[in-house]
Write a structure and sequence with these properties.
- This protein is mostly helical.
- It has two domains: 7-170, Tetracycline Repressor, domain 2 (Orthogonal Bundle), CATH 1.10.357; 171-298.
- It has 13 helices and no strands.
- It has helices at 8-16, 18-37, 44-69, 84-111, 117-134, 146-167, 172-193, 197-202, 208-212, 214-235, 242-249, 252-266, 273-297.
- Helix 2 packs antiparallel against helix 7 (172-193), helix 2 (18-37) packs parallel to helix 13 and helix 7 (172-193) runs antiparallel to helix 10.
């Protein structure tokens, strides 16, 4: 018996990547946490407006990516009887609305003096990265470098923007805390991409995993996790206080379990993709959570 076709609202939820949006909020909170740790009072209206700008940018990127995906496989993206152009038009309107509202919020912050010229440049770079990920001619989402762009945007640029909005400048703590998370994000994305390898290959999408190849991609996944936690430990030698170092290391046991699962798959064990996806999300999510707890709880 055939499953019912997904509704338009279900399409929207799938395109929006709600779990990524939740992760972006956690990443953004790291910047505010650094400001709070340094003794600055948090300007909550500015904080929330900045978070809204980030989420709107991500939504616009995802919907624009979907908009340019639709011409290739219209039948897989619409309800029975619904013209593909109607679905595409709705997606384009949502993306345009997100960009418009985000632009209005940016002007409001700049007019109120909450966005310094340096912060404006940083925000501009974030917007360029988001659009380059989704739209031609670059369209990095399927170039093999899209995952790297999103890793830098979420793990590095989002916390930096949050900190910039609060104190008007960057601080070395933000780099020491977030750089390892870039590696963890890439590992998480590779783990989530593994079950879709054949589908992405059939559609001709050059994701990072496809560009690297199955065997090399799984080995690189394991290396990324080890490097991430190694960098977390090394950050203490570079000046990161130990009270901000050890909380991130609490996710290491979950990361090692994630590596064990991939090694088992490489050795021919039965694939439990759902468990691997949950473990990958837990490794990154726990690291972000514990780091936020250390920053905001201090």
């Amino acid at each position: 018996m055939n499953e019912p076709a997904p509704t338009f609202s279900q399409h929207l939820i799938r395109i929006a990547h709600p779990w990524v949006l939740l992760l972006s909020a956690g990443m953004y909170a790291l910047g505010g946490g650094v400001a709070d740790y340094l003794g600055y009072s948090i300007n909550w209206p500015v904080y929330l407006v900045g978070l809204a700008m980030l989420i709107l940018l991500l939504l616009s990127s995802y919907f624009l990516r979907e908009y340019f995906d639709l011409p290739a496989l219209p039948e897989e993206r619409r309800k029975p009887g619904e013209p593909p152009r109607l679905l595409r038009l709705g997606i384009l309107q949502i993306a345009a609305t997100c960009l418009t509202v985000g632009a209005v919020l940016t002007v409001m912050l700049f007019a109120q003096g909450a966005l310094s010229p340096e912060g404006f440049l940083l925000l501009g770079l974030v917007v360029v990265m988001g659009l380059a990920y989704a739209i031609p001619p670059l369209r990095l989402a399927y170039s093999g470098y899209g995952e790297l762009i999103m890793a830098v945007l979420l793990a590095n640029m989002a916390p930096a923007l949050s900190l910039m909005l609060q104190i008007g400048e960057l601080h070395r703590l933000i780099a020491l805390i977030t750089f390892p998370l870039t590696f963890l994000y890439l590992a998480t994305h590779l783990a989530i991409s593994m079950p879709r390898y054949a589908e992405e290959e059939r559609k001709g999408r050059r994701t990072m995993l496809l560009r690297m190849g199955w065997q090399r991609g799984m080995s690189f996944h394991n290396l990324l996790i080890l490097l991430a936690f190694l960098l977390m430990g090394a950050a203490a030698l570079l000046g990161l206080p130990w009270r901000l170092t050890w909380p991130g290391l609490l996710a290491l046991p979950v990361g090692l379990f994630q590596i064990w699962q991939v090694v088992a798959i490489m050795n021919g064990a039965p694939t439990r993709w759902r468990l691997l996806e949950l473990t990958a999300g837990a490794t990154l999510g726990l690291a972000v959570y514990f780091l936020n707890f250390a920053l905001w709880g201090g």
